[in-house]
Amino acid sequence: MAITYSQFVTPSVIAIEANKVAPGLGDYYLGRTGFDAQQTEEEVPRDRPDNLFEPLPGDFGAHGVFGAQAHEKVATTWLAKHKGTTTLLGAAALGALAFVFRK
Asked: 46 to each of 22, 74, 101, how far by Cα in Å?
């Protein structure tokens, strides 16, 4: 399986890393745009069931209008589940770079 850029650099990864550099910037941006970004122009059917007072029957899971665009496998999940291998590969890569660029 080839890892593509879009599978590794997800919005979640970008947000986490950006929060390390400028924590207030993400809060400011979401405060200005977060609500509007979650709204849609689609009309809501008046007879649509809701879960205001009790849960809806059935398992809805994490499905929605973007379900068709979701990826089943993402590289960051594999990296998180295999931390030992990831650390070993990272150390080997750094060692190889140090060997190549030694004086």
From this structure: 43, 37, 66
CA angle 45–32–71, rounded 5-degree value: 60
> Contact at 8 Å (CB) between 78 and 7?
no
Tokens representing 23?
């924590």
Terminal C-alpha separation, the chain:
37
DSSP character at residue 69: G
C-beta of residue 9 within 8 angstroms of C-beta of residue 75: no
* CA 31 from centroid of its chain's CA atoms: 19
Which residues, in sequence order, are CB contacts of 73 under 8 Å at separation 6+? 1, 7
Length of the chain: 103
Task: Identify the segments of the chain with pLDDT beneath 70.
Answer: 1-9, 62-63, 65
Asked if 75 contacts 8 with a C-beta cutoff of 8 angstroms, the reply is yes
